[in-house]
């Protein structure tokens, strides 16, 4: 058995309309990336113009890389830190009051490694309300992070995280229950 990379490379993975949107986003990205650090509303407006569903009081930094804004939904009062990569070939949903810290990689795109042509897959990623994804974390394809979960710095998430759980490590392991102080 041998890989058939030529079939993968000669196949269009998207509709023509998606290719047009990608070209247009190349120009939109310029304005997004070259905006003042505190211009959160301005960047949110640009993302909305390209189809993102962005809640109120959302902070997304200009160094954040978002591949397909039309596949992004973020709830009210959430934040995405600097130099975070949102590789959202599939839909990425981030709940309300969620924090995705700096240099996180949210990866909603992969390939079917069992198929010789390695076709592109676009699974969803769902990050719940009140979650905290700490710095330098990798969130793999088709993952759900439950409400209130904390994913420790440098963690590699390849399985779902239960609500109000604390996870850390490579691969991620459940550490303990998250209990908020009153």
UniProtKB/TrEMBL annotation:
Transmembrane segments: none annotated. GO terms for molecular function: O-acyltransferase activity. Keywords: Transferase. GO terms for cellular component: cytosol. InterPro entries: Hexapep (IPR001451), Hexapeptide_acetyltransf (IPR051159), Trimer_LpxA-like_sf (IPR011004). Pfam families: Hexapep. Coiled coil: none annotated. PANTHER family: ACETYLTRANSFERASE C18B11.09C-RELATED (PTHR23416:SF23), SIALIC ACID SYNTHASE-RELATED (PTHR23416). Belongs to the transferase hexapeptide repeat family. This is Bacterial transferase hexapeptide family protein. The lineage of its organism: Bacteria, Pseudomonadati, Bacteroidota, Bacteroidia, Bacteroidales.
């Amino acid at each position: 058995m041998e890989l058939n990379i030529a079939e993968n490379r000669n196949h269009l993975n998207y509709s023509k309309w998606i290719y047009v949107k990608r070209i247009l986003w190349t120009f939109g990205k310029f304005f997004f990336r070259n905006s003042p650090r505190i211009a959160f509303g301005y960047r949110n407006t640009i993302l909305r113009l390209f189809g993102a569903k962005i809640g109120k009081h959302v902070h997304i930094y200009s160094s954040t890389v978002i591949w397909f804004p039309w596949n992004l939904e973020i709830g009210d009062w959430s934040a995405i830190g600097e130099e975070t990569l949102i590789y959202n070939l599939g839909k990425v949903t981030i709940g309300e009051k969620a924090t995705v810290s700096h240099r996180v990689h949210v990866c909603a795109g992969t390939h079917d490694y069992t198929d010789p042509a390695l076709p592109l897959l676009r699974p969803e990623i769902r990050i719940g309300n009140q979650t905290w994804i700490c710095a330098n974390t990798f969130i793999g394809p088709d993952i759900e992070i439950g409400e209130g979960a904390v994913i420790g710095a440098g963690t590699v998430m390849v399985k779902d995280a239960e609500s109000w759980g604390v996870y850390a490590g490579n691969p991620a392991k459940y550490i303990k229950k998250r209990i908020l102080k009153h």
